[in-house]
Specification:
The complex is a heterodimer of chains A (491) and B (247). Chain A has 22 helices and three strands. Chain A starts with a helix and ends in a 10-residue tail after the last helix. In chain A, 46% of the residues are buried. Chains A and B meet through α17 and α18 of A and β5 and α2 of B.
């Protein structure tokens, strides 16, 4: 019952608006505005979905969410346009991971070491310092900037990316980089599990799974080192539509990997001091933006659309598009870019996938239970810490997927995520913090408010600030009526 | 018979507060051992220290011959310890069925034991589709115990199962725990002395973070002075229950 009323209210408001719009605006402008409203809603939802997931379980307000949206766009754009940069860094990433992964199988043995109290802290600092030195050493003289430039040039000049592919450093000069990073990872993992007092009580045994994982990552690092150039060329030679699908996947994976790394290294130590998490994630957003500026200059790039959405001409209907793959589609007399419909579909798919994840899978069950009582979930034998990492990775991955989804029709630039972040926060607050269904409804409200606000501003020559303000006004009204948001639970 | 659980001289702090000051106890396999004591004496903290929800600063916890102090709660639970917390901690947004299924440690745990669980608590079968927050207090308590029975647990830590229950439900709960004894070991925290005395074989009295007294329940029942000193008002026995048959 609690959930039906807000839906009914939202529906009544929407239907009323539709009737007013249909009768006063005329059919074509109305349909066009509705469609762009839906597209915007889908985009807002893609950012808000991860945000609400993370907040719901972990009480973390991720202010870096807009920044990872941007990172996703950059990663996907790189992969689609010229993946030289990604293939150049891949072996290094695998090498660090392989090194770090040795900590887990070595843990039982290391835990039994007895280290004199007076050298414990210096020893750990020394390990960290040595690791840092190795990292610096491994990157010394590595020309990351020119790797980053390849896709930049390909985009700016629209030339054949294969021609622009910068050759990777020869293996003879490269091999020591992953090796040093591997060592750095091993040192870090040792520093991480060194016991202050020897723990002879815990006689847990080494798991072969841990060794297997380390071996797998090591193998991946070696393969990635060998395939730096051939991998990039193979990607460029494949079917462009397939490459686009893979770039969506790349955006998601880069986001998820980044999310997992952020959760484990930065967020985990701060759960006990949640007020610092706001500062941390906010700072992280700036750092990520600055890094992209250094690598790709503070410029805006237009990623080209995959052939699936870029054949000239207009398809008469959605069915006709399947054979023509045109850049626009005629929908009820309105010409609409086909790629925007794809965004809409992507948003709906994400919503359905999330609904299935939350209601049908074990992970979803654990998330719903963990939102309420983490301690009890842990007491059932479930590793809540891992679930947190997974959820953070998933949430950040979703934002990154939204970013690459949006990249072909909004400029790819370091600040591209900021406005979506603000909208996503409003969406999450509207929907009731932590409710993904609420986030979907909130995204619909905001998307329509923006689209119709823009239309009204144009029609009556009002300031475009009206539509920007409308979202905040909606939030104020909803919060006045329902302080916990549309689907929020009063605590 | 061997001891399935041995706790030796644990010191547990919550923040700066020294809650357990050298608690030692052992639980014989296949028995029901009761932990008695006043509010705030450290009963719940003892259970949490065993399960690793709070890590004792020193001392040892040995479960099935394996030292487990310092491990994380999920690892300890996975060794075969079920936990029924004080306030039931039923997941509100999960259905009764999901509340049971989430406790599975291996796929199919629930199916294997569903008959046994619904035999103990027939009400749950009828309610299985309802969300957890639609259950009454007594039904929630039954669900909390049932949840601990889903995986193959060798030890159950049950915290105040009678709290807030009507007398009739208390008897039903006692009956259920009594029947559990056949398949598992129970460490029970209980303020209701009637319930504790009828179920328990061994007892420990904890007072101000230390074990004040221990022994066989049948000896404690006759020691009015001891009961009065450590358990005081909490042993006030309702007339109706006091007259009921012992087990």
């Amino acid at each position: 019952m609690r959930k039906v009323r807000p839906i009914a209210i939202v529906m009544v408001i929407l239907i009323a608006l539709f009737i007013v719009g249909w009768t006063t605006m005329g059919q074509k402008p109305f349909i066009r505005t509705t469609l762009s409203g839906l597209t915007l809603s889908a985009l807002f939802f893609m950012v808000a979905a991860g945000l609400t997931l993370i907040f719901g379980l972990m009480d973390v307000l991720n202010f870096a969410h807009g920044a990872v949206f941007m990172i996703g766009a950059y990663a996907g754009w790189q992969f689609y346009t010229n993946p030289t940069f990604i293939f150049g860094l891949l072996p290094l990433v695998f090498a660090v991971l392989a090194g770090l992964s040795f900590g887990s199988p070595m843990r039982p043995r290391l835990q039994r070491l007895s280290i004199p109290e007076n050298i414990y802290s210096p020893l750990r600092s020394l390990l960290y310092l040595a690791a840092a030195a190795l990292v610096v050493g491994s990157l010394l003289g590595y020309d990351i900037l020119s790797l980053a430039e390849t896709a930049m040039v390909a985009t700016m000049t629209a030339s054949d990316p294969l021609m622009e592919a910068t050759p990777q450093e020869a293996l003879g000069g490269f091999w020591f980089r992953p090796l040093l990073l591997l060592l750095a990872g091993v040192l870090l993992s040792i520093a991480g599990v060194l016991p202050r007092t020897p723990n002879t009580d815990d006689d847990g045994t080494t798991s072969w799974r841990g060794w297997l994982l380390s071996a797998g990552l090591l193998a991946a690092a070696i393969i990635a080192s060998l395939a730096r150039e051939s991998g990039a060329i193979a990607v460029l030679q494949m079917n462009a539509d397939l490459r686009f699908v893979l770039s969506l996947l790349t955006g998601f994976l880069v986001g998820a990997g980044l999310g997992a790394a952020i959760e484990i290294t930065l967020i985990r130590p701060l759960y006990v001091r949640p007020q610092f998490l706001v500062l941390l994630t906010l700072g992280l957003a700036f750092v990520l933006q600055e890094i992209t500026q250094v690598l790709w200059d503070p410029l805006a790039y237009q990623m080209s659309r995959p052939p699936l959405f870029s054949q000239p001409g207009k398809a008469d209907s959605i069915l006709a598009w399947f054979s023509g793959r045109n850049v626009t589609i005629d929908i009820l007399g309105v010409t609409f870019p086909s790629y925007r419909l794809f965004i809409l579909v992507l948003g709906v798919v994400m919503l359905i996938a999330m609904a299935i994840l939350m209601s049908k899978t074990r992970l979803g069950m654990i998330i719903r239970a963990g939102v309420q009582d983490r301690e009890m979930v842990e007491a059932l034998g479930i590793n809540v810490r891992t679930v947190f990492t997974l959820v953070f990775a998933l949430g950040v991955g979703l934002a990154a997927l939204g970013g690459i989804g949006a990249a072909p029709f909004i400029p790819v630039e370091p600040t591209m995520g900021n406005r979506f972040q603000l909208q996503a926060f409003i969406t999450v607050v509207l929907g009731g913090m932590g409710s993904y269904g609420g986030a979907a409804i909130g995204a619909l409200l905001l998307g329509f408010a923006r689209a119709f606000g823009d239309y009204l501003a144009l029609r009556f020559s009002l300031s475009p600030a009206i539509s920007e303000a409308s979202t905040v006004i909606i939030m104020a009204i909803v919060l006045l009526v329902r302080p916990a948001g549309l689907f929020g639970r009063k605590e | 018979m061997t001891n399935i659980l041995e706790v030796n001289d644990i010191q547990t702090y919550i923040g700066q507060f020294h809650i357990l000051d050298g608690v030692s106890l052992s639980v014989r396999e296949g028995s029901i051992t009761v932990l008695l004591g006043r509010n705030g004496a450290g009963k719940t903290t003892t259970l949490k220290s065993i399960l690793g929800l709070i890590t004792p600063r020193s001392g040892s916890v040995v479960f099935k011959g394996e030292g487990i102090r310092g491990r994380r709660a999920f690892e300890i639970a996975a060794l075969g310890i079920g936990y029924v917390p004080e306030h039931r901690a039923i997941f509100r947004d999960l259905s009764v069925m999901e509340n049971l299924k989430i406790a599975e440690r291996n796929k199919g745990d629930f199916e294997r034991r569903a008959d046994m669980i619904f035999d103990l608590f027939p009400d749950l079968k009828r309610l299985s589709r309802l969300p957890g927050n639609h259950l009454s207090g007594g039904q929630q308590q039954m669900l909390a115990v049932a949840r601990a029975l889903v995986p193959e647990n060798q030890l159950l830590l049950i915290d105040e199962p009678s709290q807030g229950l009507a007398p009739l439900l208390i008897e039903q709960m006692m009956e259920a725990i009594h029947r559990l004894r056949a398949s598992t070991t129970v460490l029970l925290v209980e303020q209701n002395f009637i319930m504790a005395s009828q179920l328990g074989e061994e007892y420990y009295i904890i007072d101000d973070g230390k074990i004040a007294n221990e022994g066989l329940m049948k000896d404690l029942v006759n020691n009015k002075e001891l009961i009065q000193r450590y358990l005081g008002a909490s042993t006030a026995i309702p007339e109706r229950l006091a007259g009921s048959e012992g087990r």
